[in-house]
Amino acid sequence: MTELIQKLCNLDATSGNEESVRNFIISEIKDFCDYKIDNLGNILAFKEGKKRPLKKVMIDAHMDEVGLIITNITFDGFLKFKTVGGIETSALMFRKVLIGGKILGVISGKPIHLVGNGDRKKLPDSDSLYIDIGAISRDEASKIINIGDRGVICGEYKEQGDCIISKALDDRIGCALLIALIKSPCEYDFYASFSVQEEVGLRGARVAAFSINPQSAIVLEGTTAADISGVSEENTVCKLGFGPAVSFMDKSTVYDPAYFKAALNSGILCQPKSLVSGGNNSGAIHLSREGIRTIALSLPCRYIHTASSVAHKTDIQNMYKLAQYMLKGIASGEIQ
Asked: Mean pLDDT in runs of 10 for the chain (336 residues)?
């Protein structure tokens, strides 16, 4: 599993530019299911099982990651940009970025010896930042960069003991688990959506859910783990090593209470997501058509939406087991 996660995380796929991840996923699943690509670029797949389900189930994971988009090139060759998805300014400054998969740059920041004492504890406005690619003029930069090019913050995949450190764990973890489910023998039929543009408004999942029209959905995601020094217990959200986080409510969804209870009573190590915060594709999926009963299983990730997110390998294993358990229970009608 970790080899698959590494391959996925090392690909760059900012929202709206998911082609590299989409092509890789297709190469992995094409011999194990039927699939199609919709007009937005979602992969919609059907996995045949040994039995027909009593309830039509869709499992979703999003392919895109947060990143940057080039909006202007200055007279002296610097690149202005906007973030694609939610990235804190503190995670941007002085970081290496890769634009279009080939051009390396550095996000600017005023040198510390030029920052006044009153400003040293303040973050600059993100609109004041730029990317330095070493060009000395707009003409030079324009030869290799176009307005609308996308970039990602560089973050090399590493494993340290029981932990994985990488960019894009949100949500290449979900993609890896969904690939594994498709490639494994399955007791019941199910549908899968590898969706686009989650980080900019849950757009792909809205279209995928309308197309598949399931009765129930399982969303595989990454979520913030704030179990770090200086954070109070009630604000940790979830903790590494305690299994996937199961949501009862966030800012976009009130989750199905029966599914929430079933996950926590599964006997598989998992934890409730202890803070009502954030959101994921459930927010779009559960409102589709006549409404879809939904559960979100999320991998705890420290430093999410940065180039160095941290996740625990045992949480990944337990998230896979819990996804299998919920799929079987919902499809069979055992989970009402």
From this structure: 95 96 98 98 97 97 97 96 92 92 88 55 76 96 96 94 96 97 97 97 96 98 91 89 95 95 97 90 96 97 95 97 98 95
Q: What angle do CA 156, 162, 166 make, to 5 degrees?
A: 20
User: Is residue 198 among the annotated active site residues?
Assistant: yes
Of the residues 18, 65, 198, 221, only one is catalytic, namely 198
Distance CA 319, CA 181 (A): 11
**0.85 cut: is pTM over it?**
yes
Give the position of tokens 């003409």.
Answer: 139
State the Cα–Cα distance between residues 140 and 2, nearest whole angstrom: 41
The Cα–Cα gap between 323 and 317 comes to 10
Architecture of the domain spanning 67-153: Beta Barrel (2.40)
CA distance linking residue 264 with residue 91, whole number of Å:
34
Helix (H, G, I), strand (E, B) or coil at 316: helix
Closest residue by Cα to residue 212 from 260, 281, 298, 299: 281
Number of neighbours of residue 127 by Cβ within 10 angstroms: 11
Which token pair is 188? 């019941």
| Domain residue extents for the chain | 2-65+167-332, 67-153
CATH architecture designation of domain 2-65+167-332: 3-Layer(aba) Sandwich (3.40)
Of the candidates 266, 270, 297, which has an alpha carbon nearest to the alpha carbon of residue 281?
A: 297
Peptide bond into 171 cis (omega under 30): yes
- For the stretch 178-192, pLDDT in tens is 999 999 999 999 999
> Measured in Å, how far apart are the chain's first and last C-alpha atoms?
31
Which DSSP string do the residues of 170-202 spell out, in sequence order?
HHHHHHHHHHHHHHS--SB-EEEEEES--TTTS
